[in-house]
Structures are given as C-alpha cells and as structure tokens.
Amino acid sequence: MSAHLSSFLCSSVRSSALCMAALGAGACLGDTELVSPPRVPPTTITLEFRADSEDLATATALGWADGIPGVAVTLAPVDSTTGPPQQLQGSDSGTLTLDQLAGGRYVVDAVRWLTDSERAQLATGDDAVGFVARAPLITASASGRTQVEMVASRLGTFHFTEWAMEPAENPALGGYFYGGYVVIANNSDSTMYLDSMLLGIATSQPYEINGAPCADRIAFYSDPEGLWSAWIYQFPGTGQDYPIGPGEHKVIATDAIDHRTIIADGYDLRGADFEFLSYSDVDNPDVPNLVSVGLREPLGGHGPYGGDSDVWYLARPTDLTSLPQGILPYTTSKFVRIPGEHVLDVVTHLLLYDYAYPLCGTYVNPRFDRMTPRLLSNYMYGFSIQRLRTGADRTGPYQWTRSSYADFVRVPKTAPK
Fold first, then answer.
1. What's phi and psi for 197, nearest 5 deg?
2. pTM of the model
3. How far apart are CA 307 and CA 390, in angstroms?
4. Domain count, the chain
5. Are the C-beta atoms of 235 and 199 separated by less than 8 Å?
6. In-domain check, residue 398
7. Partners of 43 in the β-ladder
8. Closest Cα to residue 383, out of 354, 344, 349, 345?
9. What is the predicted pLDDT for the residue at 373?
C-alpha cells in the first residue's frame, strides 16, 4: 500500500476503524503507547446479612436479630469481564466471606425462605415467609465488612402479579395503546372479594423538568400519608359478587377484545376477567367493567395505559368524596389522596432514556415502595414485568417485600396469543 493511501486513511473521518483494519494500530498511532486502565485489585469482603429495621421484630422472634443464617446468595457481575454469576451460601452466623473477589461491580441477590417450623415461631398475624435483598456491591468502595439489609417477604392480600401496559410499537398506528393488561392475585390463605376495590395510577415524576423541579412537587410524589391520584377505577359488585380464592388470578384488560385483528403481535384478550370502561370503548358484554370514579380519564377514551414512569396501586373500597384534594404545582390538575392505610399493593416501573435531565431519585414514598424505583422495562410488546414467587424452587406464594425492584423481573408476557 502506498504512503499516499496510508496518509489518506489515517486522516479520514473513519480513521480509527480503517487504520486498525487495514494498516494495524501502529500505522496510525505512530509512537503513541496505549496504556490500559489500571485493574481494580482483588479484595476480600465479608457480607453481613441483617434484617431491615422495619422487619427486625420478625427476625428477633426467630433469634436472628444479630444475623440471618443460611442465606442463599447469587453474586452477579455487572461487567461480564469479571466472570459468570456465582451461587454461594451464607454461614449459620449470618455472614458470607468473598475471598479475593475480582475488582468490579456486582449485584447481590440474597434470599432466606422460612421453614414451616420457623414460621410457627412468629407472632400471631406475622405473615412473613422469608427475607430478601437485592443490593449493588462495588469492590472499590466496599469496606472489609459490608452489611446487606434484608427485608421480609410477606403474604399480604391482593397483589399485582403481572404488569403489561406498555404501548406497542406500530409506526402505522403511531403506537398502539389499548392492548395491555394487568394480572392480580389473592396471595392470602382465605377467599376475598374484589367488590368496589380501587385500581388506579398515582402521580409521579422521575426526572427534573425545566419549570417543574422535583423539589417543588415532592410533597405529591413522596407523601407518606397516601398516593395522589386522578386516574381511579372501581371494580363492580356490591359486597360478595366477585370472590377471588387463595392463589387465584384475575386478568384486567384495557380492552377485552382480540387485538390480533388490529396489530400483528397483539393478544386475544376476549377471555379477560375484567376490562376498563371509558368514553370511547367498544364494550365486551361478556366481561365485567371497571368504571372510572376518578377526577378525569386518560386521553384516548379506552382506559389506562403505561408511560415512561408508572405507579399503579390496588386499594380497599374508599369514599372518594371525603378525601383531601390538591392541585399539582405548575398545573391546574386536581388530584385526591388515597389514604395510605387503604393501599394494598403498588407496582412501580421506569423507562430510562437519555433526556439529559437528572433523576429525581424517588417518585413514590418508601411506605409504598421501599427501594428506589428502578425496575426497567421497555416498549417491546412481547414482554412484561412479573412478580417472583417464593421458595427454593420458586413455586410458593408470591414474593411481596413492597419493593418492585426486588419483587419483579422482566420476562415474556403470559397472556394467550
């Protein structure tokens, strides 16, 4: 190859790619010496598994106030160069020593499920089934002994078990918003009733926005007294019309129709147990309706759908006319506050984009989701976020730690095609 051509390639816009491929690194770099960044040296870290302060009474009843024994740990590297995930076992004293751990960033998933005999030691009304943690571990900043706070997974009552409300990507339609659904389940050991229960979306703000800073709205987004909401729907029934047995599921569709006739990768939701009714719906007469009882309805007139950030909740029957009302700063939009003691479950979801705006850090109070919401999903229509089950084989009751980040994973949808 001529010196002319070599000079041209090294000065072109695509010089780095072309030089490496055609000439080798030396031809473009000349006497420049490439220096690899220093590797973080291996380190030894001892993890100490302790109950979160909120769940200390449960741990104390088991004699675990000073450490949770026999914790099963998955140590997964964030950087693939540090190797595959490791399956490890904590000690009887509630510790785990990671000897000569390669430097880098990891995620620690820790679980300790209770045996029947251990659950029998709990106080009456304590429905804990185990302890769970999901925590980052950065070797460069970790001390020799690092505490991992574990939160109790409990039975609770009604819970979201699948959230599949993201719009489908469809250039011809400009996005298809009405083919979503959520699944709820009775996680208790007795029959309950859905009659007059509420399902709604709380106001939230994940990012700093010009003209509407997080600090000015935090009183709404992180109110410990309740969830501020305008999109509120109510189940039908007057008392015991809609029972839901232990472990039973119910599917609530935005529209209970066959969406395959509208969008190729849609789902047939004619068999849904309930559907949202709004002002522009085609109503499926065979499926009971959740009707709007809130201050306003989502645009489009088909019921709720997902967005960039979502805080969805299930709540006990509530007289909305008696609730406090407020106007969101910098808007004229009114909201009511659903009392915190009425809220049974919350699922949060966040889509991260490069908006060049910093995250607010939280967009729901820890009373309702006690880890910073950072559960990611995306606009791939075939996927949803689904709640994990408890137990070593993951076939037990649903995991409920009041943390979407710990309790949900992103997997393919379960709705029938």
1. -65, 155
2. 0.84
3. 29
4. 3
5. yes
6. no
7. 101
8. 349
9. 56
Whether the predicted pLDDT of 27 surpasses 80: no
Residue 200 domain boundaries: 158-392+406-412
CB 235 within 8 A of CB 273: no
114 with 221, same domain: the answer is no
CB-based contacts of 125, cutoff 8 Å, min separation 6:
none
Percent of the chain with pLDDT over 70: 85
CA 204 to the chain's CA centroid: 14
* Cβ burial, residue 214 (10 Å; 0-12/13-18/19+): buried
Question: What three-state secondary structure class fits 143?
Answer: coil
Q: Do 242 and 342 fall within a single domain? A: yes
Q: Range with the lowest mean pLDDT among 14-18, 163-167, 169-173, 413-417? A: 14-18
Q: What's the pLDDT score for residue 359?
A: 78
Residue where a domain stops, chosen among 134, 154, 174: 154
Q: Do 281 and 386 have their domain in common?
A: yes
Report the distance separating Cα 159 and Cα 388, nearest Å: 12
299 or 242, which is more confident = 242
Of 197, 217, 198, which is closest to residue 207 (Cα–Cα)? 217
Q: Could you say which of 115, 135, 154 is where a domain stops?
A: 154
Domain contains 250 = yes
In a domain, 397, yes or no: no
Could you tell me if 166 and 189 lie in one domain? yes
Name the one residue in this structure whose structure tokens are 């499920």: 113
Residues 47 and 195 in one domain: no
Digit-coded pLDDT (tens) for 320-332: 999 999 998 888 8
Alpha helices (H) along 80-213: 116-119
Residues in the chain: 417
Q: Does any domain span residue 234?
A: yes
